[in-house]
Design brief:
Blueprint lengths: L1 H28 L1 H6 L7 H13 L5 H8 L6 H19 L5 H23 L6 H12 L1
Helix pairs in contact: 1-3, 1-6, 3-5, 6-7
């Protein structure tokens, strides 16, 4: 429960901070600027949350470790998602890829929902199977 709850809270704050910055850029400078500019990596708050995002990809591999230790089935989508997001995140941060702000915001948001779901399940709450399918759908889109 603690693992998922910690990642949920971290992701919620990350989504709020990056989302508010990206919304500000979108509203004040337009869509093109929000997608095609690297300013996300330079603002003091957004720079911190971009760095935290990149660093968080390594601990998120703990999910994979837990699956293996519990001797559960490790599906292709799980490890593919973790490896590709980890590599793309490191690459895009290093090269300050334009559009990275939206990528980070969306990933933070999906992870906020996903880890909240995991925390609820680990705490013994019943959550709809359809909701789990919705989370998987958001991860692959």
């Amino acid at each position: 429960v603690l693992w998922s709850l910690t990642l949920a809270v971290f992701s919620i704050f990350g989504a709020m901070r990056t989302g508010s910055y990206m919304t500000y850029i979108l509203m004040t400078k337009g869509l093109k600027q929000s997608v095609c500019d690297q300013s996300f990596y330079n603002g003091p708050v957004s720079k911190f949350w971009a760095y935290a995002f990149v660093l968080s990809k390594a601990p998120e591999l703990g999910d994979t470790l837990f699956i293996v230790l519990r001797k559960q089935k490790l599906i292709f989508l799980h490890w593919y998602h973790h490896i590709t997001v980890l590599l793309y995140s490191w690459y895009s941060y290093k090269d300050m890829v334009a559009g990275g702000g939206w990528f980070m915001t969306m990933n933070y948001l999906v992870h906020a929902v996903m880890y909240s779901y995991y925390a609820l399940r680990a705490a013994g709450f019943k959550v709809s199977r359809k909701f789990a399918m919705f989370i998987t759908l958001t991860q692959i889109t």
